[in-house]
Amino acid sequence: MNIKKSLAVVSAFVLALTVGLTAPPSAASANDGGSQGQNGADHADQFNGGWDGTAIGLDARPYVTSLTIDGVSQLTDVPQSPTDDFWASPVRAAIYAFNSCPTGKTPDSGECYADPNRIGITMGYGNGDSIATNFASDSAAEFGITTNSMIDLTVQMNGFKGALGWTWLSGHP
Question: Three-state DSSP class for 19?
Answer without folding.
Answer: helix
